[in-house]
From TrEMBL:
It comes from Candidatus Blackburnbacteria bacterium RIFCSPHIGHO2_02_FULL_44_20. The keyword Membrane applies. The keyword Manganese does not apply. It comes from the Bacteria. The chain crosses the membrane at residues 12-32, 73-91, 100-119, 125-144, 151-169, 181-208, 220-241, 286-303, 310-333, 353-370, 377-395, 861-878. Keywords: Membrane, Transmembrane, Transmembrane helix. Coiled coil: none annotated. This is Membrane protein 6-pyruvoyl-tetrahydropterin synthase-related domain-containing protein.
């Protein structure tokens, strides 16, 4: 193995190297041109933020386009730490990204395939074409152009990781163990998904050799593999422990795979976004790519003594199947895997399997070229053909990193404007931020396209056809303040340099709309980018005396505004019992006088059912004839209902909905129950009072009718005695438009307990009923102003908060996550204020600690990782000394 990593012979053929270096230099010429390489996903960190990387990893991050979130790429922290060190040494972000990612990624993509094929014992032609195809292909070019720097570096390391893993399993010994461990750890720091793929492919390769009799597996190999797995787990525990712990607490990740690829794309080595690289716009392979599969598979018909090409072909076909994702054939397998396996959601983009696909494809192509007659002519023709396939970057047709962009001077002015403002605030970029937009802990970025999906902005939208439709409702101005947004920047989509005529019209209309909004101040600092200021943004955290608990939808804000023009949602936080993010029974833990309960076109029964959420069953869990929409698709199903004449701003208990417009369609729920007396509850919505829905549970029939169309209502069937076992509830559309949100079979004793609890709570808590816009008990709807509180930053997961007198509740405007808590002793978990932020009950004045509990798993994992590395280093030293 050692000889593989020696320098290549000094007398290597000049043509060989020029043939590789010249096209590589032409395709990636932007690396040598003036101007930074931050574009699309490529980051640009400002010095004040870069220097914060010299620290332990933190599971909560404010970087990106969100309002704070759990980091899903914590494995990259070693490289981020190194970036922070280089920044402290005086290097700027662009230079650091070039040094750590761009240049190593491309150089390794040239060199590592040569090392790989030399190890396998192949000659110059195979080495040449494997390396050429690996560095000159549609996938890698778009990877660089898209600025996916972590994946880019992992791509370059992949052949080395695969080689060392294969060598570990084929020849288990101390040297191969540590070589594999080092390369796997390094590639994992760049992108753990690619590291996992390299391990999978190595096992696939070894298994294929074993099944075809090319290799025997010894006991030592199994032991080595087990020890390697334990070492990898130990080293990576700093991110594995928090990731899996938080994943298990949040439940399985949904979403399924991204259907971007097809089997034809995989076989033709054709990246589906080639070459404009716009997400969602995919295309089948161009006809002239037909030469690649012919060159890859063309030699299989020949009888060969060396059986290895058949192994490579098998591996090629397996990863080609995986690279197509959930597309036919058998796409359901990949969809299931990404939805249910641990870390499966990380592989939603199946095109990452292009990496081993291209490597094996290059070897097979080189082997077939090596067998062609008139070898020199064949080599030349195939060489020109491979280069011709990626003509767009050669002729400057790309739009991202490789287009050689320069920084728009407008961003420097905008960044100076933001940097020089005191205090905390956020800046919303329409539709998303440019990589050169400044972001720090105090000056945060939020993308308007993400904002449009968050309530209450989402409830102001009509649907998905116009994400910024909420700007037509002036209520959004109040929410800009609550979200802490001071500036709106119409910077455009950095991923779409050219707009269609219709897109340009919509963009101009957006500018005109904001220009005409008198509450916004247009900021003129000499830029070609429109900037608007909302002058009354809230701080990151603020206090209030009372909490409004709403049973019903978030149209309550509009109702309050109509009742009292001076009403502002920032003066008192709101929480919704039907958003499915908390248990309303927690209200028993707070002072009754600090809460006002509002029944927003709802009855006491609706509040009772919100106390029984643990029994709810989502329609998403069943196979049926109705259309299904998840809770995350709120805008989609809201718009679909609007097209059917139903307008709603209600919540769905975070369970999603099923809807039907065709008579006879059935929705089926299956439940395993112990014997006992139950209450059946069905939450549904209809378009008209004439619409009917029939339910059957065994021999029990339930007719579901509504007195209030357009709103979710509960249908209750009591006194149901059921035997132990599996029971099936079938709901059948007998006419009209129906939406079902949840069903439940509630033990009768629990049902009675919930009514008793509701009575106990409402006897103490002031309750207001809103029915058709009419309010009762109006004196309880106060307009008390919000209260400033002191927030002291310790680290991204811990703050100290000073609570003044007369504050019972505080709102922390990072995205809601139940992992946030206050107080060291009681550790009171966050409430979902406004169904978006973190809220906390603070019963007395003084100082409290605001902490994200998930960070403790990072710290425990760090100890485990450090201990593992020390143990491995000690064992390695001991082994060396013994020699």
């Amino acid at each position: 193995m050692k000889k593989i990593f020696k320098k290549f012979p000094s007398n290597a053929d000049l043509v060989f190297w020029l043939g590789l270096l010249v096209p590589t230099a032409i395709v990636f010429k932007a690396f040598f041109l003036p101007g930074p390489l931050a574009r699309n996903d490529a980051p640009y960190f400002f010095p004040e933020y870069l220097r914060t990387f010299v620290d332990i990893p933190y599971i909560w991050t404010s970087w990106g386009e969100e309002l704070g979130r759990v980091s899903n790429v914590l494995w990259i922290h070693p490289l981020m730490f190194l970036m922070g060190v280089l920044s402290n040494l005086g290097l700027e972000s662009d230079a650091i990204v070039r040094i750590l990612f761009y240049f190593p990624g491309v150089i390794l993509s040239l060199i590592s395939p040569l090392i790989f094929t030399r190890y396998l014992g192949y000659g110059k032609i195979v080495q040449f074409f494997t390396s050429l195809l690996y560095v000159i292909n549609t996938y890698f070019v778009l990877l660089v152009d898209g600025g996916q720097v972590g994946v880019l570096l992992a791509y370059g390391l992949f052949p080395l990781s695969l080689l060392t893993l294969y060598n570990l399993f084929a020849k288990p010994q101390t040297s191969s163990f540590y070589q594999a461990l080092v390369t796997f750890t390094v590639i994992g720091a760049a992108d753990m998904r690619i590291a996992i793929i390299s391990l999978f492919v190595a096992l696939l390769w070894i298994s294929a050799e074993y099944l075809t009799g090319q290799r025997t597996l010894e006991k030592k190999g199994y032991i080595t593999a087990l020890l390697f797995g334990l070492a990898v787990l130990g080293i990576n525990m700093y991110w594995l422990l928090p990731t899996f712990t938080l994943l298990s607490q949040d439940g399985p990740s949904g979403g399924g795979a991204l259907q971007l690829n097809s089997l034809l794309n995989s076989l033709f080595l054709f990246q589906p976004h080639w070459y404009l690289n716009q997400f969602g716009k995919v295309s089948p392979p161009y006809f002239y790519f037909i030469g690649l599969p012919l060159l890859i598979f063309g030699g299989l018909w020949r009888t060969q003594k060396d059986k290895r090409p058949y192994i490579y072909t098998f591996c090629f076909l397996v990863v080609a199947f995986l690279a197509k994702g959930e597309a036919p054939p058998l796409g359901f397998f990949y969809e299931w895997a990404t939805s249910h396996l641990p870390l499966g959601v990380a592989f939603r983009d199946s095109t990452k399997f292009f990496i081993p696909l291209i490597l094996f494809g290059g070897i097979l192509l080189g082997l077939n070229v090596e067998r062609l007659r008139l070898k020199k002519i064949a080599v030349g023709l195939v060489y020109l053909y491979v280069i011709a396939l990626i003509w767009p970057p050669i002729f400057g047709k790309l739009n991202g990193v490789l287009a050689g962009h320069r920084i728009d001077p407008s961003f420097q002015k905008i960044n100076n404007l933001i940097r020089n403002q005191p205090g905390f605030f956020r800046t919303a970029y329409f539709p998303e931020h440019d990589p050169y937009s400044i972001h720090t802990t105090e000056k945060q970025i939020v993308d308007a396209k993400i904002l449009a999906n968050k309530r209450p902005f989402a409830s102001l939208n009509a649907g998905t056809f116009d994400r910024f439709n909420f700007l037509h409702d002036t209520e959004y101005l109040d929410w800009l303040d609550v979200f802490g947004i001071r500036y709106l920047v119409l910077s455009g989509d950095p991923r779409k340099p050219f707009l269609t005529q219709e897109e340009q019209y919509d963009w101009d209309s957006l500018k005109n709309l904001l220009d005409s909004t008198k509450e916004l101040q247009k900021v003129d600092i000499g830029t070609n980018i429109n900037i608007y200021q909302s002058p009354n943004n809230m701080p990151r955290i603020f206090g209030a005396k009372k909490l409004f608990v709403v049973v019903g939808g978030d149209d309550i804000y509009t109702s309050l505004k109509k009742k009292e023009e001076r009403f502002s949602p920032k003066n008192q936080p709101f929480i919704f019992t039907e958003d499915g993010k908390w248990d309303p029974e927690r209200l028993t833990e707070v002072k009754p006088e600090s809460v006002v309960l509002i029944l927003n076109n709802k009855k006491e029964q609706d509040f009772v059912l919100s106390l029984l959420q643990r029994y709810f069953i989502s329609p998403e869990q069943e196979n049926n004839q109705w259309a299904l929409r998840s809770s995350s698709e709120y805008l989609e199903w809201k718009y679909e209902l609007l097209k059917n004449g139903i307008e709603t701003k209600e919540f769905d208990y975070n369970l999603g909905v099923a809807f039907s417009t065709n008579k006879g369609e059935k929705l089926i729920f299956s439940m395993d129950l112990p014997s006992g007396e139950y209450v059946l509850a069905v939450r549904s919505l209809v378009k008209s009072t004439d619409d009917s829905l029939n339910g059957t549970l065994g021999d029990i029939t339930v007719e579901i009718k509504h007195a209030s169309p357009g709103k979710f209502n509960w249908t209750i069937k009591e006194n149901m005695n059921l035997l132990k076992g599996k029971h099936t509830l079938t709901l059948e559309n007998t006419g009209g438009t129906h939406v079902v949100n949840a069903v439940a079979l509630i033990p009768k004793a629990e049902w009675n307990n919930a009514w008793n609890l509701e009575k106990s709570m409402t006897d103490k808590i002031s309750t207001v009923s809103v029915e058709g816009g009419t309010w009762d008990n109006q004196e309880d709807i106060a307009d008390s102003p919000w209260v400033p509180v002191n927030l002291n930053f310790k680290n991204p997961t811990e703050y100290t908060v000073g609570i003044p007198t007369d504050v019972n509740w505080i709102t922390f405007t990072d995205s809601f996550n139940a992992g946030w808590s206050i107080n060291e002793d009681t550790k009171t978990a966050a409430y979902p204020f406004y169904s978006t932020f973190n809220g906390f009950y603070v019963p007395k004045e003084g100082f409290v600690t605001l902490k994200f509990e998930g960070q403790k798993f990072v710290q425990r994992g760090l100890y485990f990782s450090a201990g593992t590395m020390l143990l491995l280093a000690g064992l390695y030293t001991w082994k060396r000394l013994r020699k």
